[in-house]
Fold:
Amino acid sequence: MTGLTQNTVPGDDTVLAAYTEVRQATLALCETLENEDFGLQAMPEASPPKWHLAHSSWFFETFILKPFASDYRPFHPEYEYLFNSYYHGIGAQYPRAQRGLLSRPTVREVYQYRAHVDAHMVVLLAQTDHPDREAILQRCELGLQHEQQHQELLCTDIKYSFSFNPLYPALRKAPPSVTVVADRPLRFLDFEAADMRMGYAGNGFHFDNEVPAHDFHLPGFRFADRLVSNAEYLEFIADGGYTEPGLWLSDGWAWLQESNAVHPYYWARRDDDWFEYTLYGLQALIPELPVCHVNYYEADAYARWCEKRLPTEQEWEAVCQRRDIAPSHAAISLHPCTVADGEGITQMFGSLWQWTRSSYSPYPGYRPAAGAIGEYNGKFMCNQVVLRGSSCVTPPGHARTSYRNFFYPGDQWQFSGIRLADDL
Structure:
């Protein structure tokens, strides 16, 4: 779910503080986990917490310490193999589907590994006269962005693994109250046709799938002012939305028959009441909250049922540009627990990732980076769909207007929701 590149180098006075903050934030997410939780892996795509802790350290070790720290000695010679995700240029990888079988190294040893990497990174970052200082700082910022992605994945993955437990474990105690602004009818705002420039064009950090910035003509369109709510999705279910083949793409209908889905993934029916499993445990379904954990097939079927469609990623980015919308820096909440209201566009950031109808493909003129680090993104530009925005578990400061997330159409375990659009 990423690409990587950047134009700027973080300053000497901020890089160490940023490194410490991000690394500590990962550990904070694991504070309530028990040892038994660290090895859970309910499907190949959902890695165990212990693996996330180790792999994010592997990234700093592999791409910074080994090439730039002359006195560095790896913590363990086999970790390069165990915690390599998919970098074939680095070497072979332990099978992804079997990460949950790694009872060793222990949780304690993985924490020692993180401490080992941190100690050497602090020393290296303090070497302001290092001949490769610029490359070190650039890769350090990249590593921190990479770790923030794994913070979000850690939340989504442990939620998926926890969901198989009938005790419905909670990662955090539920907040004392959930503030929900009164529901209001969904409205569509009109946007006229225009020429626009899309993609990242600034001087800050960005991943390589956000560039190059390019011009194109965008036809007029209509854009929903908020996400689709649980209450609205319940109407789709009640109207037989999961049983009407005419609403579904062919691949979507095949997924539906195989999965036997009849509602969003974490929903549960108890007598006549609906509940939703969250990282705060099993909670009564709140009708006004945005429907969460729907895949592309479900989002597309719902849009067809409404006689609408999903937006393109160009439309989504154009709305941000024309309405001057930027991501906030709200803390991780583990669940989209508030509904914003107002006259303009709401819930673009910090609530749920939003499916677009755009296939994940390179921008005109895109070139992946050279070497193993270039494997981060370009090779995944096939058979996936772009999501825009950010979610309630996206770390503060990580999102951008040009950020392109991407997943396979059948993926449900990410915090993804539905934004509707239409032709003007």
Q: What stands out?
A: The first helix runs from residue 12 to 29. The CA atoms of residues 46 and 157 lie 5 Å apart. The mean pLDDT is 92.
